[in-house]
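Field reference: "sequence" (input) and "structure" (output). Example, R13L1/DRL21-like LRR repeat region domain-containing protein:
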Amino acid sequence: MKSLKELNILDCYSLDKMPSGLSALTKVEALPRYITTNASDNPVLELQGLRNLKRLGLESIEEMSVKDAAEIQLQEKYKLEHLTLHCNKDAESSNPIVAKELLDNLKPNQGLKTLEIICYAGERFPCWMPNKDPHLKKLTHIRLINVKCKSLPALGQLPHLTTLEISGMNAIKHVGKELNGEPTDSSTTTFRTLKSIIFSQMVNLESWPKEEGATCPYLEELSVIQCPKFRELSMELPITNLTVSLIPHDLLRKEGIAGVASSLRSLSISLCEELSASSSKGLTALSSLEKIVISGCNQLESLPPCAENLASLKSVTIIGCSRFHDLTDLLECTGRARLRSLRISGCPKVTSIPEALRGITTWE
């Protein structure tokens, strides 16, 4: 056991206590789930000597004292690359000041590449989170899940960040300057390596407005999921893939997606109950669009007129749209576009396929 490299109990849901003697596993490199509540006699001492850790997940950290958090000495775990700080969901109602002090004392080393913070009750992020002179300059992946903070951290100046996921931050209304951060003397570009962003389950998020000087030059993918107030994406982004689910139909107006209209190649729309041809006219502005997938949009009867604009469209998939029946606009597209694939499934009102579409259609 002393030569063990990984101890993974992520799927052991009934386990609520760590075994004693883990401090003897000095060669262990991965502890993706370490339960601090009901832990052995001194959980801090168990972790102190584990200098080879590359991955560590601390669970139920609200059960720790501020003193214990400091004594774990995360800053001295120089090989640590992946850190998860996970509070219990019940901790969301705990004292936000104490919660911040706790995270302040769980400051990781500067070599960290992946950071996950889950169910954090503080109103502000810990002092070591990125700012104008970020401590964690090697971060490539960040996940912020069910965090109670009232503002976003300044992540835009992280030089190696490639993926960002923000979920359940219900205090956030707009994405803007605070997330981009202040430009440094050496660079005016924000998010200069970012490739993917996910916003999900943010009940008050309304927009990502256009901002002067803000850039995401390599951003490829944006997902907006279960954000019921999100109506504006005017920030100019070079994304090629956009996924939206359970969002207002207003977003798909021309003004709503103006910031991505020229670059977008793939669009996935799901569970947007009020989506209709009239409310999705923004689709006609997507001149580079090659692929569109629409599923679970039960008010949609047809696509908006597209013959003049969607000249790059190659693939259309429509699944589980109970009122969809009109293929007229797709017929117009075949004359000018490069439409090669049409899949229709779970659309009971489509009773036949026009002759011009039969050679490219999968109909279920």
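Helices lie at 43-48, 66-71, 96-104, 177-180, 328-336.
The mean pLDDT is 86.
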